[in-house]
Write a structure and sequence with these properties.
With 474 residues, this protein is an alpha/beta fold. It contains 13 helices and 25 strands. A hairpin with a 5-residue loop joins strand 6 and strand 7.
């Protein structure tokens, strides 16, 4: 008889591989089906990891050219070797994807190469790269297929001039002019990479602020910092098309305020207008699994997929970018763990109030919890405290004084409701706030906890003290 697995995971991105490992740790006989040549999904192969490798490398280049002299380090004749930078990025990706292969072997997880499709709630059809097909049986299924870049119907990707984030990681030369459509995390991060390396970067954003739904006040602060670095912005504008003329794109847009039509030329146009679930071709429709117009799969509180008959398939789970919520790797990981624990008879749970968000520009922008705008909209009374990095001793010593910390707490209970940081290593600093909020702690808890001196983290303490009017400005 054919082998039957306790769990088959379709997709090996952060949610899929972490969920598979947790299931194996809990004693479930687990297999993973992956359509791509390497494990890790978008995040490890063409997303989080390679983009951070390029962000770090481009930051080193920028610092060497513009900032080292202030530290008494004279670096003459600094040149860019883009090929070496890209090779290093590829090596970082390879090391991470190989690491997943090692973890699968360590946890006795069986990998299958090919595109997985639900033939039934207990059968997975796998189409191998050579076209061959196989069917494996399972007691449970975890759909963890992630997402793909949104494509504008009037500006189709051609992989050369009109590109997605995937191609933006592999440009063989620095474009003279780059237009980025969308001022969210992906656009700002990859725009920063190529701006540091010498491109003239202009970002066109439909909204009147950058950084999506992040705190408006700190978004404006980051906007001004990036402008000072050389990034150009056109806000409140709708991109309407692009015409390719001799390998140059003429991007048309109109301003929302007055409808005025304008255009701008670019060697490369990066379309970074969000992502959509990869939910086509999985056999969902045949099983009556509900998904909305964008392809988002609907699930219950236990991540079991909903069906058109207003019921659920109890053994089919979906997580990560496939389901509602922010499209973040760490959110997918926690959902993968929770779903594995639930199917193993444990009490899996994800606290969506403490999911942090990070934009890896420099300085970084990190946040957890509610923004001031959300608190006002929900009529929640709050107090706030802020502290600038320009008043932080370690930031001054490191010459990293751009940005600030904002702490929001309940006006009555002092419970921490949100923390927002634009500043150096904000992506690391935010997790102090995540931990305190996970335990329903207060601004006073943060303010009265030890923070070594001098450290960037003291800025959080001072902002928390500010909630009670006790900030110690330097």
């Amino acid at each position: 008889m054919a082998e039957t697995y306790d769990l088959v995971v379709i997709g090996s991105g952060p949610g899929g591989y972490v969920g598979a490992i947790r299931a194996a740790q809990l004693g479930l006989k687990t297999a993973v089906v992956e359509k791509d040549p390497t494990f890790g999904g978008t995040c490890l192969n063409v997303g989080c990891i390679p983009s951070k490798a390029l962000l770090d490398s481009s930051e080193h280049y920028s610092v060497a050219r513009h900032e080292l002299a202030a530290h008494g380090v004279i670096a003459k004749g600094v040149d860019l070797d883009l090929a070496t930078m890209l090779n290093r990025k590829d090596k970082v990706v390879l090391d991470n994807t190989n690491g997943i292969s090692f973890l699968f072997k360590k946890n006795k997880i069986t990998p299958f190469r090919g595109k997985g499709r639900l033939r039934s709630p207990t059968e997975i059809e796998i189409t191998a790269p050579d076209g061959g097909q196989d069917v494996i049986k399972t007691r449970n299924v975890m759909l963890a297929t992630g997402s793909v870049a949104n494509e504008l119907p009037f500006m189709r990707f051609d992989g050369r001039t009109i590109i997605s984030s995937t191609e933006a990681l592999t440009l063989s030369t620095v474009p003279r002019k780059m237009v980025v459509v969308g001022a969210g995390a992906i656009g700002l991060e990859l725009g920063s990479v190529w701006m540091r390396l010498g491109a003239d970067v202009t970002v066109i954003e439909y909204g009147n602020k950058i950084a999506g739904v992040m705190d408006a006040g700190l978004s404006d602060r980051l906007f001004r910092i990036l402008q000072k670095q050389g990034m150009k912005f056109i806000l409140g504008a709708k991109t309407t098309g692009a015409e390719i003329k001799k390998s140059v794109a003429v991007v048309q847009f109109e301003t929302l305020k007055d409808g005025a039509k304008n255009s701008i030329e670019a060697d490369v146009v990066l379309v970074a207008v969000g992502r959509k679930p990869y939910s086509d071709g999985l056999g969902l429709e045949q099983l009556g699994i509900v998904k909305d117009a964008r392809g988002v799969v609907q699930v219950n509180d236990h991540y079991q997929v909903r069906t058109t008959s207003n019921s659920v398939l109890p053994n089919v789970f979906a997580i990560g970018d496939l389901i509602p919520g922010p499209m973040l790797a760490h959110k997918a990981e926690e959902e993968g763990v929770a779903a594995a624990e639930i199917m193993a008879g444990h009490a899996g749970h994800v606290n969506y109030e403490t999911v942090p968000s990070v934009i890896y520009t420099w300085p970084e922008f990190a946040a957890v919890g509610a923004t001031e705008e959300q608190l006002k909209q929900n009529n929640i009374k709050y107090k706030s405290g802020t502290f600038p990095f320009s008043a932080n001793g370690r930031a001054r010593a490191a010459a990293q004084t751009d940005g600030m910390v904002k702490v929001l707490a309940d006006a009555t209970t002092d419970r921490l409701l949100g923390v927002h940081i634009v500043g150096p290593r904000a992506s690391d600093l935010i997790h102090e706030a995540v931990a305190i909020m996970e335990f329903r702690g207060s601004a006073e808890d943060m303010a009265r906890s030890f923070h070594a001196h001098p450290t960037f983290s003291e800025a959080l303490r001072e902002a928390a003290l500010g909630v009670d009017g006790r900030t110690r400005q330097m």
